[in-house]
Amino acid sequence: MERMGHTSLSASRARSARFINLLILSSILVGALVLRTWNVNFDQGVGSHPDERSTACFVAPTIGLPQSWDQFRDPQRSPLNPLWNLAQGERRSFTYGHFPLYLGVGMGHVLHHLAPVAERWSDLTGPGFAFSPKTISLMARANQACDGIAVAGRLTIALLDTLTIVLVYLLAGALFAPRGRRLGKPTGVRGFALLAAAFYAFTAQAIQLSHFFAMDPASTTFTVLAVLGGVYMVQRRSLASATLCGLGAGLAVSSKFSALPILAVPVVAGVLIYLRAALRVSAFAYASDRPQALTIAEETARLADGENIGAIEDEAAGRVQFFALGGVVWA
Fold this sequence. Notes:
Blueprint: H1 2-37, H2 50-59, H3 69-73, E1 84-85, E2 90-91, H4 98-125, H5 133-140, H6 147-183, H7 186-201, H8 204-209, H9 216-236, H10 239-255, H11 264-287, H12 294-305, H13 311-330
Antiparallel strand pairs: 1-2
Helix pairs in contact: 1-6, 1-7, 2-6, 4-5, 4-6, 6-7, 6-9, 6-13, 9-10, 9-11, 9-13, 11-12, 11-13
C-alpha cells in the first residue's frame, strides 16, 4: 500500500514537472515571437537590407504558380524559377535560397487575402481590437513588390526562427536524455533543454536577422532539424528519424547552398549505426565459445542498443553534432 502511494506521488510530481516545463517553454516561445515580429515594418519600405531589397523588389514579384505541367518542367517558362527573367527572356542572378522565397511569396498572398477579413473585423469590433488602416493597407499589398512582400517575408522568417527555438529545445533534450536516464534525473534534462531554448530565443543577432527577408535564419532552422534527425537516427534507428534528417538537410541546402556540409549528418549517423551493430555482433561472437564472457557480451550489446546506461548514445550523438557543426556555422 505504501509503495502504491509512493508511485502515485511520483507520477503526480512528474505531471507537475511536465506542466511547468511546458509553461516555461510556451512563455519563451511567445516572448521570442513578439521580439521577432515587433515593429516588423521598421524601415517603412526603405529597404535597408540590400539582399532583401533585391529579393522583394525584383525577384519575388515575378514568382507564381505554373499554368501547366509543361510550363512547370520548362525552366525558361516556369514562373517558379528565380534564375530566369520571364519578361526579358534571359538569365538573372539569384544567389539565395529558393524555398524561403516561395514561403515568403506564399505568405504575401495569404496576407493579401486576409486584408478584407481584417477590415471587416475592425468594423465589427471597434477601436479597441481593430487593425490600424496602415496595417490593413500593408496586408492588402503584401503580394506586391518591395515593402509589401518584404514584410510578408519578414513574418515568414520570424516564424521559422521561432521554430528553430523548438528544435533547439528538442535537440538539447535528445543529447542530454541518456545522461538523465543514467542519473535518474529527467527533470534536469528538461532544464538543460529550456536553457538552450532561452539562450537562442533571446540572442540579439537572431532577433535582428528575423527582421529581414533574408535566407540565413531559414537555413539555420532546417540545419538544426537535420542535426536533430541525425541524433534521433543514432538513438532510435527508425525510418521516421532518417526521413526527418534527410528532409532537414534537403531544406537547409534549398534555403542556402552554403549549408551543403549538413549532408554529412545522415552519412555520419548511418556509419555510427553500423559501427554499433558491428560492436554488438562482435561481442556475442567472442562470447559464443567463452561462456564466462557472456555477461560481458550481453552488457556490451545493451550498450550498443542504447538500453539502460546509454553511454553509446552520448558518444554517437555527440559525434553527429560535431560533424554537423560545420554545417550550422557555415549556414
